[in-house]
Design a protein that fits this description.
Blueprint (H helix, E strand, L loop, with lengths): L2 E12 L5 E6 L4 E4 L13 E8 L12 E9 L1
Parallel strand pairs: 3-5
Antiparallel strand pairs: 1-2, 1-4, 2-3, 4-5
Length: 76
Amino acid sequence: MNQEIKLAGTIRYIDLGMGIWALVASSGEQYELLQPAPQDLLREGMTVTITGEIRDDVMTIAAIGPVLAVQQFQAI
């Protein structure tokens, strides 16, 4: 079952394989952004709040943390 969540944190680009975009939450937990993510969100170092869904039904090769499907975001 997928879970909706609201998080605040910083966008990071991880140079692994073909490249991975992630949210490092203010709690320190890392979430992999499900692609395609909004292009305006993919900016290294941008601080944001994101509303999205943790996708328990999606696995990735990177396996850096839970996969987050972004529903909406706001720069802060």
